[in-house]
Write a structure and sequence with these properties.
The complex is a heterodimer of chains A (219) and B (221). In chain A, helix 1 runs parallel beside helix 3 (67-77), helix 4 (89-115) packs parallel to helix 7 (161-171) and helix 7 (161-171) crosses helix 11 (202-216). In chain A, strands 2-1-3-4 form a 4-stranded mixed sheet. Helices cover 59% and strands 8% of the residues of chain A. Chain A has helices at 14-25, 42-47, 67-77, 89-115, 118-139, 152-157, 161-171, 175-178, 180-190, 193-196, 202-216, and strands spanning 5-9, 31-34, 56-59, 62-65. Chain A contains 11 helices and 4 strands; from the N terminus they run βαβαββααααααααα. In chain A, 41% of the residues are buried. Chain A has 2 domains: 5-77, Glutaredoxin, CATH 3.40.30; 89-216, Glutathione S-transferase Yfyf (Class Pi), Chain A, domain 2 (Up-down Bundle), CATH 1.20.1050.10. Chain B has 2 domains: 6-78, Glutaredoxin; 90-217, Glutathione S-transferase Yfyf (Class Pi), Chain A, domain 2, CATH 1.20.1050. Chain B has 12 helices and 4 strands, in the order E-H-E-H-E-E-H-H-H-H-H-H-H-H-H-H. Chain B has helices at 15-26, 43-48, 68-78, 90-107, 114-117, 120-141, 154-159, 163-173, 177-180, 182-192, 195-198, 204-217, and strands spanning 6-10, 32-35, 57-60, 63-66. Chain B has a 4-stranded mixed sheet, with helices on one face. In chain B, helix 1 links the parallel strand 1 (6-10) and strand 2. The model of chain B has no long low-confidence stretch (mean pLDDT 94). Classes of the chains: A alpha+beta (219), B alpha+beta (221). Chains A and B meet through strand 4, helix 3 and helix 4 of A and strand 4, helix 3 and helix 4 of B. Chain A: GO terms for molecular function: glutathione transferase activity. Chain A: It comes from Hibiscus syriacus. Chain A: One of its GO terms (cellular component) is cytosol. Chain A: This is glutathione transferase.
Chain lengths: 219, 221
């Protein structure tokens, strides 16, 4: 259980944020290493030769790649505190389903919202909101997707909240107007230190998106 | 023994459905197989998977589980005492999950469809990437009989269904997997010696006929 933990990460990455939150929830001390994605370190290329992407969790010298796999790994290794996945197999399957839904829909649709314009952007906004509404339905009256505490789906989704301001500015819409329950849930999550310390400032993310738009020649 | 009701909503040619079939067979679970007409989805499918409306759907004692990788993990966790598919060690589990995710991203992606559905440049590019991905999987397999070691494991179950489509890919793309990835083809044949696999995969000629039908229907010519 003990042993060196290193996280190769990039500050605006929603995927990196998931792993940060999981480590914080479990109270695990680790070394955070910021990667320059235009100049990837030898360590990153060595630890994730297949995808060459962050985040990479290195535990006792052995790498774990892919954020949702890292979160499950953290949950299984440090299984004596703050469980993220339920113990019942059916509930676990449901949690995995919605985390997978976040991966399939939220990242791609969110990207389209800031990368595109006109018709394409309107379609992306519409589908993005529809997906958030489905998540609201799954949340129901619970404080968190995990019930009374943060769970797997909360950790998978909350990082996107740091990008919502950028999406709203680029897409000229209000996510809170469309999905008030989800925003209320996000603010509730932000009251947790593990989340607040893991998410970057929304203005910084917006600046980063504007910078990316310049770099990619998107206007 | 408590009464268990297990139903699988499936489609014969779907590699995703095959994963669920293999997992159920490995565990020796009796279940009702319901074939879906994907052009006319049943009320039961739309009710049990309203979000994605896709097969496979595993319905266990009336409760649905969707997404093939999630279905396989669920089966492994509900029936843990026979033929475990995922290892016990967390690091080995993370490695197995990584390679299953790699299969999803690289072998079962929409891009790989271009091997049989596209021509010219697009086909060549898709084929090259696909072969590279299979070679990475060969590297992970190493000298083991199966990805799971001495027995079928999670990655074996996730990957072997694609073997039923290899013949269709080869015919449409005019190449040979055995030439490019002999170790992987040897692994697939080894898997097919297991009844749980051979009974779960359709005949490769039938898949080829089906692929030709799809090409006609969607105008990939």
């Amino acid at each position: 259980m003990e042993g060196a933990v290193v996280l190769l990460d990039f500050w605006p990455s929603m995927f990196g944020m998931r792993t940060r939150i999981a480590l914080a929830e479990k109270g695990i001390k680790y070394e955070y290493r910021e990667e320059d994605l235009r100049n990837k370190s030898d360590l990153l290329l060595q630890m994730n030769p297949v995808h060459k992407k962050i985040p990479v969790l290195i535990h006792n010298g052995k790498p774990v790649c892919e954020s949702l796999i890292q979160v499950q790994y953290i949950d299984e290794v440090w299984n004596d505190r703050a469980p993220l996945l339920p113990s019942d197999p059916y509930k676990r399957a449901i949690a995995r389903f919605w985390a997978d839904f976040v991966d399939k829909k939220i990242y791609d649709l969110g990207s389209k919202v800031w990368k595109t314009k006109g018709e394409e952007q309107e379609t992306a906004k519409k589908e993005f909101i529809e997906s958030l509404k489905l998540l609201e339905g799954e949340l129901g009256d619970k404080a968190y997707f995990g019930g009374e505490n943060l769970g797997f789906v909360d950790v998978a989704l909350i990082p996107f909240y740091s990008w919502f301001y950028a999406y709203e500015k680029c897409g000229n819409f209000s996510i809170e107007a469309e999905c008030p329950k989800l925003i209320a849930w996000a603010k509730r999550c932000m009251q947790k230190e593990s989340v607040a310390k893991s998410l970057p400032d929304k203005e910084k993310v917006y600046e980063f998106v504007l910078h990316l738009k310049k770099v990619y020649g998107i206007e | 023994m408590e009464k268990e009701e297990v139903v699988l909503l499936d489609f014969w040619a779907s590699p995703f459905g095959m994963r669920a079939r293999i997992a159920l067979a490995v565990k020796g679970i009796n279940y009702e197989h319901k074939e879906e007409d994907l052009s006319n989805k049943s009320g039961l499918l739309l009710k049990t998977n309203p979000v994605l409306k896709q097969i496979p759907v595993l319905i266990h004692n009336g409760k649905p589980v969707c997404e093939s990788l999630i279905v396989v993990q669920y089966i492994d966790e509900v029936w843990p005492h026979r033929s475990p598919l995922l290892p016990l060690d967390p690091y080995q589990r993370a490695t197995a999950r990584f390679w299953a995710d790699f299969v999803e991203k690289k072998i079962c992606s929409l891009e790989s469809r271009k091997i049989w559905a596209a021509k010219g440049e697009e086909h060549e590019a898709a084929k090259k990437e696909f072969i590279e991905s299979l070679k990475l999987l060969e590297g992970e397999l190493g000298n083991k009989a199966y990805f799971g070691g001495e027995n079928l494991g999670y990655v074996d179950v996730v990957l072997v269904p694609m073997y039923s489509w290899f013949y269709a890919y080869e015919k449409c793309g005019n190449f040979s997997f055995e030439t490019e990835c002999p170790k992987l083809v040897a692994w697939a044949r080894r898997c097919l010696e297991q009844e749980s696999v051979s009974k779960s995969l359709p005949d490769q000629e039938k898949i080829y006929e089906y692929a030709l039908q799809l090409k006609k229907r969607f105008g990939f010519e």
